[in-house]
Amino acid sequence: QLQLVESGGGLVQPGGSLRLSCAASGGTLNYYAIGWFRQAPGAQREGVSCINSDDGSTYYADSVKGRFTISRDTAKNTVYLQMNRLKPEDTTVYYCAADPGRATLNSYLYESWGQGTQVTVSS
Asked: What is the mean pLDDT of residues 80-89?
């Protein structure tokens, strides 16, 4: 059974940076498409970024493109989300998810989910 644990969230000022980690156990992340998602208060869940298992191709939501970078460390069985130039509207809980299919920003297509890590961007 694949289990995912997010970490790296916290409080940061606007314009700052954080790196989120998604560590896997019970399976190899290299065999899964991995997505990062977030859900702000009163909003629907948003796909932030994802990475494919086969060719490593990546995708980003328009709201984070140019600021966030997703990457995978096969040796550590961990996927990262580097978040730069953070904005207050980035504040919410961030989740990682895994699926054996192709990477997508549609959260309904993912099978395994972590519990989330809180990101707060405030002055």
From this structure: 97
